[in-house]
Amino acid sequence: MSDFDRRASVPTDDALEQLLKHAAPRPTPSQSDEAAVRQAVRSEWRHVTGRYRSRRRVLQYAIAATVLIGVFSVFSVFRLPAVEAVQVATIEKSFGSIYLLGEESELRETRDLSTVLSGQTIVTGNKTGIALAWDGGGSLRVDENSRVKFRSENAVYVQLGRIYFDSEPAALVAGTSAGGIDGFVVLTDYGEIAHLGTQFMTDVNSGELTVSVREGQVAVDGQYHSHVATSGQQVRFSGRQKPAVLSISRFGNSWDWVSRTSPATNVDGKTLHEYLLWACRELGLELEYEGEAEHVARLAKLKGAINSEPAEAMKHRMATAALESRIDEGVIYVSKIR
User: Fold this and answer.
1) Across-strand partners of 86?
2) Which CATH class is domain 264-336?
3) Contacts with 223 (C-beta within 8 Å, 6 or more apart), sequence order
4) What value does the mean pLDDT of the chain take?
5) What span, in angstroms and rounded, lies between the C-alpha atoms of 115 and 337?
């Protein structure tokens, strides 16, 4: 076997070793040449990796900028134009704990609140009540344990609790005018209530919407059903069920809280008859005179202001004019004391 054949029969690594043994010794580079080569390699490596890092940083900045632009664009699309807050109502009477809902959903108790602005949310505590003169016309009441947002000059949102609205209040209360604004609505999570010239109560509780009409009509546009309720009707909306319609009294326990929030009345120079008309409207009663009682009531002049609740004040004022009364099926009968 020739030398070539013998080398070819050796495994690859061994053959390479055998060839290197036959090669002449390589010259050893000088230390200066070796240092120069190392420096050149190191410089090229830094240059290449530096460009990579720069590209990576540029790419990172570009991605971050793209994300920021995207977020800004989304917020720009959904951002609403700033709306100036305007006065929507004046508080005529209040008692108990009243809170304003802050920007971070915190409750701030207020004792000197006299006006209400659009965008404000009022929260009432236990044994609390508020009477407001609606600037567009009408009287609005808020019961205890309620949360009401005043959306605009013609809309309120009831999240929880009870409110009462009278579009035609008598003019005995300073700042309160008749003729509730056209288009005034009460908004809830379960439907929208529009008054058609009326006195009505809205109650939002336990996932239900209940609307009670003392006088006139209201149109209720529920999530799944609609209904026009008339005087003496109560309509209840619960989920997808058809609204339940009941007959209710225009006075009594379910309305008592309304008279507790009745504001002070300026009766100076007014007749007893004028006051009785206002008090009966607050109580949901009809007024009837017997004998000469009407003549007496129209002549009797009142002075000052009345701060007590209508039922109590009415008895006292009638007694000073030698009149008395009795209530029968929603009608108050006034007669002379015998």
Assistant:
1) none
2) alpha beta
3) 190, 191, 237
4) 83
5) 43
- Each domain of the chain, given as residue ranges in start order, spans 1-79, 87-256, 264-336
pLDDT computed for residue 169 by the predictor: 82
What is d(CA 1, CA 301) in angstroms, rounded to the nearest whole number?
148
Alpha-carbon separation of residue 199 from 140, 222, 235, 282 (angstroms): 10, 19, 14, 10
Share of the chain above pLDDT 70, in %: 73
- At residue 271, the 3 state secondary structure works out as strand
Instruction: Decide if domain 87-256 falls under CATH 2.60.120.1440.
Output: yes
Contact assessment for residue 248 and residue 212, using Cβ atoms and an 8 Å cutoff: yes
At 68-124, the pLDDT tens digits run: 445 445 444 455 455 688 999 999 999 999 999 988 788 999 888 999 999 999 999
| Residue 181: Cβ-neighbour burial (10 angstroms; 0-12, 13-18, 19+) | middle
CA distance 20 to 313: 125
User: How far apart (Å, rounded) are the C-alpha atoms in residues 147 and 337?
Assistant: 46
pLDDT of residue 154 exceeding 50, the answer is yes
Q: Which among 16-25, 101-110, 205-214 has the top mean pLDDT?
A: 205-214
Contacts of 94 (CB under 8 A, 6+ apart): 113, 128, 129, 130, 131
Measured distance CA(113)–CA(123) in Å, rounded: 13
CA distances from 267 to 105, 171, 181, 264, 302 (A): 41, 10, 26, 9, 6
Please give the DSSP secondary-structure letter assigned to residue 28. P
> Are β-strands 226-230 and 217-222 bridged in parallel, bridged antiparallel, or unpaired?
antiparallel
**Tens-place pLDDT, residues 246-293:** 999 999 999 999 999 999 999 999 999 999 999 999 999 999 999 999
- What is the token pair recorded at 217? 């009509």
Q: Is the pLDDT of residue 214 over 90?
A: yes
Question: What are the tokens at 110?
Answer: 């207020």
